[in-house]
Amino acid sequence: MKKLLSLVVPVYYEEECIFQFIKETTAVLEEMEQLDYEIVFIDDGSKDRTVELIKEKAADNQRLKLVELSYNHGKQGAVTAGIHHASGDYLLYMDPDLQDPPKEIPRFVAEIEKGYDLVFGIRAEKMDTWLNKLFSKIFWSTLNRFTGLEIPKGLAVMRIFNRKFANKFMEYREHNRFIEGIFMHIGMKRTQITIQQRERFAGVSKFNFTRKMQLAINAIFDFSQLPLVFVVRFGLILAVLGFGALLAIIITKLFIMDFQAGWPSIVSTIIMGSGLQIFFIGIAAIYIGKIYAESKHRPLYSIREKTNLEEENA
Ligand code: UDP
Ligand code: MG
User: Fold this and answer.
1) For the whole model, what pTM was predicted?
2) Over the stretch 160-193, which tens digit does the pLDDT of each residue have?
3) Ligand 2 centroid to 95 CA: how many Å?
4) Which of these CATH numbers, 3.50.50.60, 3.90.550.10, 3.30.390.50, 3.40.50.1100, describes 3-132+154-206+299-313?
5) 3-state secondary structure labels for all residues of 28-47
6) 44 CB under 6 A from ligand 1?
7) What's the rounded Cα separation, in Å, for the pair 254 and 202?
8) Where do the structural domains in the chain lie, given as residue ranges?
9) How far is the CA of 163 from the centre of ligand 2 (A)?
């Protein structure tokens, strides 16, 4: 029996890219006669014609499937929904903006058929503005530093993994999810191939500086206790220094010379102390907030409608 390849494609305001994307990918996929394919689109709450255009194509091609999320869940949520709805033996995740070219699909398939669980795409050269490149660089280096995940450098979006890997992925129940981190955390047998990059076909990137920073902060808090460790050490060092200073004052006063310490030293000590407390409590609160969010075990996404896919409660 032929193996099934699922393309998992999150879309968010991509009306300018959709037709070109479907055209290029189906052309490549139809050529690969050893495989069946499906393309699972996950609409992440676009309000433009993205959904309409996908439905138009899905009417003629049953292999095009669409999951519409009720509202914008962010890329991480959309990808998760896509993995849940793909039924392939292999799942290939790519963006519709054609930055990672569909002609690379056969190479990904060839590589995973060698027996890997995950094949990452690595960009030969990133086609992006220098500002975006700088953001990415800061983002990934901060991450590697703080999480210790050893995420490969120059990671492209495009990657392929098998059913076993996908099933494992679905066992991760956290809400604050950093997909690359989870992928590295699953581990299994992985390798990488270098792929060419193109410019975004049309439209603009949805990730501005603030969103990227939010992702980075999320990822750091999701995958490391480092902020906490840092704060604890900081607190300890300050306490030791304070104790030392106090000791110095006492010794000076008793054995060297008599002097008036005065209220400024008291006031500044109080201010510093309460500032520190607020800071520490704030950090602890971030973790408590995360525990609260996780403990609710909410469903990871909420779907408005599906196309060419069965409804569970129909
Ligand atoms: N995306 C999404 N939800 C969002 C933002 C983006 O599903 O809230 C999708 C978007 O449609 C695209 C992918 O995530 O398929 C990557 O977005 P984009 O190309 O804008 O980012 P960049 O390639 O510049 O990092
Ligand atoms: Mg892109």
Assistant:
1) 0.81
2) 999 999 998 998 888 778 888 889 888 888 999 9
3) 6
4) 3.90.550.10
5) HHHHCCCEEEEEEEEECCCC
6) yes
7) 76
8) 3-132+154-206+299-313, 226-295
9) 25
